[in-house]
Amino acid sequence: GWALPGNTRFGKKGSGNKIKAKVADYLKQFFLNGNLNPKNKLTASAMRKELLELAHSGEIDEDHVPK
Question: Which domain of life is it from (predicted)?
Fold first, then answer.
């Protein structure tokens, strides 16, 4: 049949790390700021740099900054 036991894979879905809520809120702010004023649009590397600056200032944990 189509569901042979040897072909099944377990534990693959959702195995990645989740973005923390506070980091997601900052990312939403960055995106919305770029939508409101296109001159303030940030690239992905610039967003990461901003998140790292927030981590160095103690607002968020540096381990929570996505790569």
Answer: Eukaryota
pTM over 0.85: no
Bigger pLDDT: 20 vs 2: 20
Give pLDDT tens digits for 11-43.
666 666 788 999 999 999 999 988 888 888 989
Q: Is residue 47 part of a domain?
A: yes
Is 4 inside any structural domain?
Answer: no
Per the domain annotation, does 14 fall within a domain? Answer: no
Structural domain count of the chain:
1
Q: Residues 22, 28, 29, 31: is their CA dihedral positive or negative?
A: positive
Q: Is residue 33 part of a domain?
A: yes
